[in-house]
Amino acid sequence: MLWPGVVSVLAAILALTVLLASLVSPLAALAWLAFVLVAGTLANTVFLNRLHHWAESPGSRDVPSAPLFWGRIFDRIARFARGEADARRALTRDAATARSIVDWLPDALVLLSARDQIEWHNRAAQDVFGFLGVRRPIRQFVREPEFAAYLRDFEAGRPLQIELSARPGQVHEIRLHVLEDERRLLICRDITEQARLNRMRSDFVANVSHEIRTPVTVIGGFAETMLDLDLDEAQRRQYLENIVRQSQTMQRLVADLLTLATLESAADEDSEEIIDLAVLFEQLGAEARALSAQAHTVEVRAPSGLGLVGRSTEIESAVRNLLSNAVRYTPAGGVVRLDSCRRDSDLWITVEDNGPGIAAEHLPRLTERFYRVDRARSRSTGGTGLGLAIVKRIVGRHGGSLHVESRVGEGSRFNLILPGSRVRALPLPQAPETADRAA
Q1: Model pLDDT, residue 199
Q2: Which 8-state DSSP code applies to residue 139?
Q3: Where are the domains of the chain?
Q4: H-helix or E-strand containing 224?
Q5: CA angle centred on 387, ends 214 and 242, rounded to 5°
Q6: Between the CA of residue 3 and those of 6, 8, 64, 207, what are the distances in Å?
Q7: What does pLDDT average to over the chain?
Q8: How far apart are CA 212 and CA 422, in angstroms?
Q9: In this predicted structure, what is the pLDDT of residue 439?
Q10: What is the CATH number of domain 273-425?
Q11: How distant, in Å, are the alpha carbons of 277, 309, 413 from that of 272?
Q12: 391 with 324: CB under 8 angstroms?
């Protein structure tokens, strides 16, 4: 507290005044009081002037010094000023950190005034909208009519999905949040991938529904006919055969869907083994000949002494899909060939046919789910439209790729390209005489 010091000084002045009046004269005491008053006034004026001078620019000047109780006042002001400066520096650092964090957010943030003028934006907003400064209406940069309507007819909680002219091919979701002072915070997020997945999901559901509806309709129609009409044995058997055929189509579709779902959800760390390609080729070649029922020439060139590290059931399924497609789509009398070779250390497993071939515009979409070059022909051959999607997924899980070559009227060649790191040399089987000598 300052009062004890002030009281002590006043007491000393009064004591000296009384002493001068009693020992010297009252005039001397009066002169002393006048001197003290003038000196105190001048001193206080000087110290107040120093304080005023410092207060004009406290951030760039030090707090002045003074004796007695003025010194204590200045010390307290100095401590307060240092605390305020430290707090201001901390606040500046926090604001800079927050601004840096907001600038690195992937979402575009824009603060709009009540008149939709840009007051502030982060770096992502500048990249998305191409802003060239603030205090300008946002409509100068985002000119899409649906965006203008969204600003005008804004409803809380309702987002806007839009393709911006500055970002062709990308879909963005825009949301507005009203602040307390009638300003609005605009948040823009890139949802291109999400929109693509949503479209794929919708297309997948629509395709599955379409594929199932046809056999279900056929089965229902034949079943109702058998219930309503008095059929002879031959007609009844024909209807039952149609019902069985359509039910098998549904079973194949469900099986392929389950296979695809299993491949997409299975971990890549599943157990692997060394697959003897010669054994695999001979087995699948026999299956292809049985499926063809001698309508085609099925040639198999089994690689001797070559193994592949992988998931045997998946590799078998991939090659089987390619072979069955070749048999189904190649006219009777055609040739289907299963072969393999090494190219730049990679292993190429090739299924080739001399069927009608595929036009170039269809090749990039062959591995899409349910994509068919000829829907009517695909249904007649029993295809589900998922085989090549399964093949692509399997070879991808093994670090490889599917390469398709085809020309209309010349046939098609489907190549499973697997990395050389998965190839292993297997011991060649010994001839019987050699084996007897070794024994």
Answers
A1: 79
A2: G
A3: 3-98, 105-190, 197-265, 273-425
A4: helix 192-228
A5: 30
A6: 5, 8, 21, 91
A7: 82
A8: 39
A9: 38
A10: 3.30.565.10
A11: 14, 6, 27
A12: no
